[in-house]
């Protein structure tokens, strides 16, 4: 389904978008057909009632009209039940289609999209906003369609019965509309703010609950409690504003309609008394007035929910209109026997905005089968280098080549399959050890998994578990220690058998015993691969084939450990700091 970029949604654009979803068109047709039949039947009832009253005589009861009336009531009940069920089905089908569209889009959005947004807000689009749209389809569309038919049909039949009373009624109707429409616009603004604030609140709640250990260890419960209470008060305020608008809309609408009924009933009674209108006609007119007034009283709720649904769809479209990463749209130019430097940075620059460059004119080469360590203070741009290699972001200038080919010309999936990224803080998904080891692989060999487990020094730990490799690791891997998580990440990388290895100092926060196990596993992993390391420890740096010093986005030095020790002041400071820390420990 193609999603066009648009500004504020119009009613037509909203209906058009919903119609384009993968709905069951036949079921939709049935739902509308049953609504129409039910509405038409409701229009027939007052006419039959009028005829029954005007011809009623105790000695000559019109049994046929009475049976017909009861039959129409039953038929109307059945049609109503079927139409409600079918529209509920359509609503659920629309939500399913919307959530599929959103999930298919979200999962392929670039990392930059998530860096700028709270994950809870994105989740709110998938849950809250889609439910608002479903509620509108299932709870508002049927009464609206039925109401339009009832209003139009009732006005026509009222003109047929008595045009003078119809004119009196038509004077009141525009007044109701003039009052409802401005309030509907106010409802749109308030409901949109309410939904935005709800999404933001949900995101903050998710953040706090995910990092509950940090909250507890920092004794920040009171602070988070106060922040949460403030957000709840803000939500409460928006809800009160929404309630105030409803409190104005509903009484005004009902009062005007009640006034219309009193005026018309009084005028009609006078006409009956003078003999210019039959009693049956007056009863029919009152029936039709109710068939007009009931939909009108529901119009306020309809427009309020409609504005909510418009706001929800606008927020959903913000995601659907975002460009995804390009996957497998390019031909592969790589062949296995190409030689040369594996990865080459040529005058690469990167910035999130022009005023704040992150990297400036980086030029270096990482050779096949060798390790390159990147050293620099916090904020120097080390992690950004890895993000550019992974193509989470695109350089603003220069190029990154792999075996002489610009990586931007390669199919994204194929490129990322050549890379294994071992993070400093290893991400672990909920599930078993096995599901984490083979995460992202379409197929795998259990023998290769066992081999990777052994090489990553995980075998002894896994064998000691009651469920072995099928042991659940808990949410975000809470049942694993830091060293176990890192070795799991290394085993995962070994199973992928990558050509390029990105290591964000995997031993930075481990104890000595865990560090040795992880370091041994890393040495096995680095054999015959191009390895780039973000380095924080002297032990990692000294073993690297090439060192690169990064300061404020610039390369200020490169070479071996001995070369930089003799020529680079920052590297000398780094070595001295490491030696001091070692002596202190």
From TrEMBL:
Task: Please report the stretch or stretches of sequence annotated as the ABC transmembrane type-1 domain.
Answer: 29-308
Superkingdom of the organism of origin: Bacteria
Q: Which residues form the ABC transporter domain?
A: 343-577
List, in alphabetical order, the Gene Ontology terms for molecular function in this entry: ABC-type oligopeptide transporter activity; ATP binding; ATP hydrolysis activity
> Where does it localize?
Cell membrane
Which keywords fit this entry according to its UniProt record? ATP-binding, Cell membrane, Membrane, Nucleotide-binding, Transmembrane, Transmembrane helix, Transport
> How is the protein disposed in the membrane?
Multi-pass membrane protein
Q: Mind telling me which GO cellular component terms the entry cites?
A: plasma membrane
Q: Which residues cross the membrane?
A: 26-48, 68-90, 131-157, 163-183, 244-266
Query: InterPro entries from the entry?
Result: AAA+_ATPase, ABC1_TM_dom, ABC1_TM_sf, ABC_transporter-like_ATP-bd, ABC_transporter-like_CS, P-loop_NTPase, Type_1_exporter
Q: Which PANTHER family match?
A: ATP-BINDING CASSETTE SUB-FAMILY B MEMBER 10, MITOCHONDRIAL (PTHR43394:SF1), ATP-DEPENDENT PERMEASE MDL1, MITOCHONDRIAL (PTHR43394)
This protein's name: ATP-binding cassette, subfamily B, AbcA/BmrA
